[in-house]
Structure formats: C-alpha cells, structure tokens
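Hi everyone, sorry if this is the wrong subforum. Our group has a chain we'd like a structural model of before ordering constructs, and none of us has done structure prediction before. Sequence below.
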Amino acid sequence: MGQEAVLDELVNAVLSFDADKVMDTVKKALAQGIDPVKIIDDGLTKALRIVGKKFEEGEYFLMHLVAAAESVQKTINELLAPEVAKRKRQRKVLGKVVLGTVAGDIHDIGKNIVGALLFAAGFEVFDIGKDVPTEQFVNKAKEANADIVGASALLSTSLPMQHEIVKACEAEGIRNKVKLMFGGAPVTEEWVREIGGDGYAENAVEAVKAAKKLLKIQG
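Answer:
Right subforum, don't worry. Here is the predicted structure as tokens:
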C-alpha cells in the first residue's frame, strides 16, 4: 500500500471514530517510513478539518468532535510526538497558543476540542490543563512567548477568573504582546468586551476562526 493510500486510510479511521483503528493505522504508516509530520498534517489534521466542517454544517454533533479530538490527541501524544522529537522535525506553525480552563473549573472537553482543532489548523498549542491558577496562564505565556492565551470557563462562578487573567497580563507587562481569547458556556461576546479581552469563541470551530482573525491570518 502506497503512502497516500495509508494516509487516506488514516483519515477514514478518524472519520469512523474508532480510536484503536486510528492508532493501528498510524503504526502502519510509521512502519512504512512515512514522516511523522506528514502523518500529522496529511492524515490526522486533514481528518479533523473535515470533522470541523461537518460540525459547522450540522452534519456532525458535539459527540463526533469529542470522539475525533480524543483519538487524534491520544495518537499524537503516544506515538507521533515522540517520533517528531526524536527526528527533531518541526511543523510550520501559524502561532503559539496557551490554552487552559480557569481556576475553580474542572471542565475540559470543550477546551480539548479547541486544542485539537487549533493544532489541526496549524497552531502550536500549549495545553496547561483544567482548574489552572491565573499566574500559570501568565507564566506559560511568557515562557512560550505565546501569541494567544485562550481560557475557558464552563461555570458562571468561574467567569471572574477570565477577568483576573486580563488584569494579571496587564500587571506583568505582557498585555500588549498577547491576544486574550475566551470561551465557555456562560461566556458572551459582551462579557469578553467588558473585561477587556480580544476574542470570543462560541465553539471550537469558531475558536480557530477567532485565533486566525486575532493574528490577521488569512484563510
């Protein structure tokens, strides 16, 4: 089986939402000597873009986004990231995004999907997890020289933490260097404007568009 056929098989595996099949197909691709960056770009991220488009068109639902994102993330973390590091290969990146769920909030499904779709779009994503203290967002942004900080809040009680991130970035002198993007069930565009944020995303597909818009990236 040629390289393109294996990569097509990988796209179909992601679209069948079969995590084991995704893992097995990536192993097959690596065994054939296909470059891990090519596997990511022409296999996994191509499939995630299709899932995102079908979600946008109403053909797929949240469960499909969750399933695809989880299988892709697991495969990248376990198989491909170590291979990329070993070969010291780098993907071309559109920008660097620090992503996390704010302190006091342990919801991370939405944040994980956003991370997977941003990665698929070509961003380097630093996922710092859930229930993340404000200073950790700021410290990671400085350490990674991030272009964007994205913070999710799924509980209305945790909304004020998004405002704390804005204030902390100002206090640390990095507010003019980083764009702040916020999302989550109780978050609105008005809220983001009110707290001095830069971008709002209603869902994961919109988050990719918002990130590109913030960095003035076409397409």
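For your construct planning: The chain has a mean pLDDT of 94. The radius of gyration is 17 Å.
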